[in-house]
Design brief:
By secondary structure, this protein is α/β, with parallel strands linked by helices. It is 51% helix and 8% strand. The strands form three sheets. The chain has a five-stranded mixed beta sheet with strand order 5-4-3-8-9, with helices on both faces. A two-stranded antiparallel ribbon has the order 1-2. Strands 6-7 form a two-stranded antiparallel ribbon. The radius of gyration is 33 Å and the shape is globular.
Length: 542
C-alpha cells in the first residue's frame, strides 16, 4: 500500500490559496455568463419558433394561434395618488332631492273614531309604465277642384306603422343596452306588440340620415377644436368580410368608422370627416420629403398645375399620367404620394391644426404630431419572461425606474416648466440607454429609446393624456356589440352602428342623457329638448 503524501491544499500558502480561489471565482463567473447567454439564445429561439409556426399556419390558411393576455402591468393605477388621501368627504346626497314628482296620490288610513289628523307622511316611489298603444289615425282626405288628392299628414316621428316612442325604446335597448334584435323582438311581442325581427332591424337602421349628419358634424367640430385626440381600432365584420372599426375622440366626443383595412390611407380618409380631397400643398410636400420620397418625383408633383382632386379616381388618374404607376422603387411612390395628398386635404380643411394624435404605436396612426401611449410602451417590458433570478431582478429594477418616471410625468402635467422638462429628457436617456445585461430587456429598452420624441411629447403639450385608456374604454362597447350581435350585413346597418355608437359615447362625455337625446331626435311628443351635439362639443372646448 502506497502511503499518501500531504494534501497540496494544506501545504499551500495563504497567497496561493487566494490566487486559487480567485481563479475558481473567475471560472464560475464565466460559466454563469455562458449559462445566461444560453438562456438568451433559448428564449430567442423559442420566439423564432413561435413566429415560424404562426407564419406556417398563415400560409396553410389555418386559424391563428389564440393570444393569451398577460396580467395588466398596473402602472397607471400603481402611480396614482392614494385614494385615502384624495377621497372626498362629501356624500352623494339624498336621492329624494333629485327626483321630479310627476303625480301625487293621497292614501286614506283606516283609523278608529276619535283619532286626530296629523298631516301626511310622504313616500316617493319610482315606477315605469310600459304598455302597448294602438292608435287609429283618421286622416282627412280631400279632392281639389282640379282633381288633386290631399291627405292629412301623420304625426311627426311615425315610421312604417310604428311610433317614435317604440323607435326610441328599440334604439336605446340595442345600442346602449346591448340587447340583440332577436331578444328585442321576443320582448316586444311578449308585451303584446305585433312586430317582426325584420321590422325591428328596419327601425334600427333606416331613416337615420339626420343622425348620421349630426355625427359627422360632431367629428368635424371635434377635429377643428381638439388639442389632442386618442385613437384605437378593433376588428369588425361587415357584409361577410373582416374589416376594422377605428375610434377617434377626446374627453368631449367619440366617433367610430368602419373600413375594409387598417392602413394609413384608410385612417387618413377617416380623418377627412366625410370629404375625399387629395391636395398637393405645402403640408403634403413636407410629408413626402419626410418619408424619403425621391426628390425628382416631388418636383414633378410640385411643378404640375393640377393640385386639387375631388376623389380617389381623379387622383389615381393624375398619378398614371405622371408615370408614377410605372416606377418600381421603395418606398412606393404611389402609396407615399396618396397618403401625403390625403394629409394635405386634411390640413386644407383646417382639421387637426396643432392637434396631437395619441396612439398605441400602430404604424397607421403615426402622422402629424404624434404621442405614444406609455401603458403600451411599458407593456413591452412587463411581458418579458426572464429565466433566471438575475434577469428577473434586472426587469424588476427597470420597471421600477419606469414607473417612477411615469409618476413624475403625471406630476409634470400639473406644473410644467422648461427646466424640469430638460431634466426629464436627460433622465429618460439614463433609464433607456443603461445596459442591464439581459439581452431581451436591453433590446426592448433600445426600441423604446428610439421613440423618445413620441413618448416625451407631453413635455411640450402637458394637456395631452399619457395613455389611450379613453379610446380603449370607448371601443370596448363596439367589441361587446360584435361579440353579442356579430357583424353588419347592409351598408345602412354599418352606418347605423357607427353613428349610434358614436353619438351614444359623445352624449356620455357631454353628460347628456342618450335616452333624452333619442326622444328629441325621433320627435317623441313631450320629449326633453337636447341641443345639437356639435354646439356642445365646441362649447366644451372653450
Amino acid at each position: 500500500m502506497t502511503p499518501q503524501g500531504p494534501d497540496p491544499v494544506d501545504a499551500a500558502s495563504l497567497s496561493d490559496l487566494r490566487r486559487f480561489v480567485s481563479v475558481l471565482a473567475a471560472q464560475l463567473e464565466e460559466l454563469k455568463s455562458a449559462a445566461f447567454a444560453k438562456d438568451d439564445q433559448v428564449a430567442l429561439l423559442k420566439t423564432e419558433i413561435v413566429e415560424l409556426k404562426d407564419e406556417i399556419a398563415r400560409l396553410k390558411g389555418l386559424p391563428p394561434r389564440p393570444k393569451f393576455k398577460s396580467k395588466p402591468s398596473g402602472m397607471e393605477k400603481g402611480t396614482a395618488k392614494s385614494s385615502a388621501k384624495t377621497r372626498s368627504k362629501r356624500t352623494r346626497g339624498s336621492v329624494r332631492d333629485k327626483l321630479v314628482i310627476t303625480s301625487e296620490v293621497k292614501l286614506k288610513a283606516d283609523v278608529p273614531e276619535g283619532s286626530r289628523f296629523r298631516g301626511f307622511e310622504d313616500v316617493l316611489v319610482q315606477d315605469l309604465r310600459i304598455c302597448v298603444d294602438v292608435v287609429r289615425y283618421r286622416r282627412e282626405r280631400w279632392e281639389t277642384p282640379d282633381g288633386k288628392r290631399i291627405v292629412a299628414d301623420l304625426s311627426a316621428g311615425i315610421r312604417g306603422g310604428f311610433g317614435p316612442e317604440l323607435r326610441r325604446f328599440i334604439a336605446a335597448g340595442h345600442f346602449q343596452g346591448q340587447v340583440t334584435t332577436e331578444r328585442l323582438t321576443a320582448l316586444l311581442t311578449g308585451m303584446g306588440l305585433k312586430i317582426s325581427k325584420r321590422q325591428v332591424v328596419r327601425l334600427l337602421s333606416q331613416d337615420l340620415e339626420a343622425l348620421a349628419s349630426e355625427d359627422q358634424s360632431v367629428f368635424r367640430t371635434g377635429l377643428e377644436t381638439a388639442r389632442w385626440i386618442s385613437v384605437d381600432d378593433s376588428s369588425a365584420r361587415h357584409a361577410g368580410k373582416n374589416g376594422f372599426v377605428t375610434q377617434a375622440g377626446d374627453d368631449r366626443f367619440a366617433v367610430f368608422r368602419t373600413t375594409a383595412s387598417k392602413s394609413r390611407q384608410s385612417f387618413l380618409s377617416v380623418l377627412q370627416a366625410g370629404h375625399s380631397d387629395y391636395i398637393v400643398n405645402d403640408a403634403a410636400l413636407a410629408m413626402m420629403r419626410q418619408r424619403n420620397m425621391a426628390a425628382p418625383l416631388v418636383t414633378t408633383l410640385t411643378k404640375h398645375p393640377a393640385r386639387r382632386f375631388n376623389d380617389e379616381a381623379a387622383w389615381r388618374a393624375h398619378l398614371e399620367i405622371l408615370g408614377f404607376g410605372n416606377i418600381t422603387a421603395l418606398p412606393d411612390p404611389v402609396k407615399i404620394a396618396t397618403e401625403a395628398a390625403l394629409w394635405g386635404g386634411i390640413c386644407e380643411q383646417g382639421l387637426l391644426d396643432g392637434t396631437v394624435i395619441v396612439s398605441d404605436g400602430a404604424g397607421q396612426f403615426k402622422i402629424g404630431e404624434h404621442a405614444l401611449c406609455w401603458v403600451h410602451a411599458e407593456r413591452l417590458v412587463h411581458k418579458l419572461q426572464p429565466t433566471s433570478a438575475v434577469y428577473r431582478c434586472a426587469v424588476a429594477t427597470k420597471r421600477s425606474l419606469i414607473w417612477r418616471f411615469y409618476a413624475d410625468l403625471k406630476a409634470y402635467k400639473h406644473e410644467p416648466n422648461a427646466r424640469r422638462a430638460k431634466m426629464m429628457r436627460a433622465r429618460f436617456d439614463r433609464i433607456f440607454t443603461t445596459k442591464s445585461g439581459y439581452a431581451l430587456l436591453d433590446r426592448q429598452l433600445a426600441r423604446l429609446h428610439r421613440q423618445k420624441a413620441d413618448l416625451l411629447r407631453v413635455l411640450d403639450h402637458p394637456e395631452i393624456p399619457l395613455h389611450t385608456n379613453g379610446s380603449e374604454n370607448d371601443i370596448r362597447s363596439v367589441v361587446t356589440k360584435r361579440k353579442i350581435s356579430g357583424g353588419t350585413v347592409s351598408e345602412a346597418g354599418r352606418i347605423a352602428r357607427d353613428t349610434m355608437m358614436g353619438l351614444m359615447k359623445t352624449c356620455a362625455k357631454l353628460n347628456v342623457s342618450f335616452y333624452h337625446f333619442l326622444g328629441d331626435r325621433f320627435q317623441v311628443p313631450g320629449a326633453t329638448p337636447v341641443p345639437s351635439l356639435p354646439s356642445l362639443v365646441r362649447l366644451a372646448a372653450a
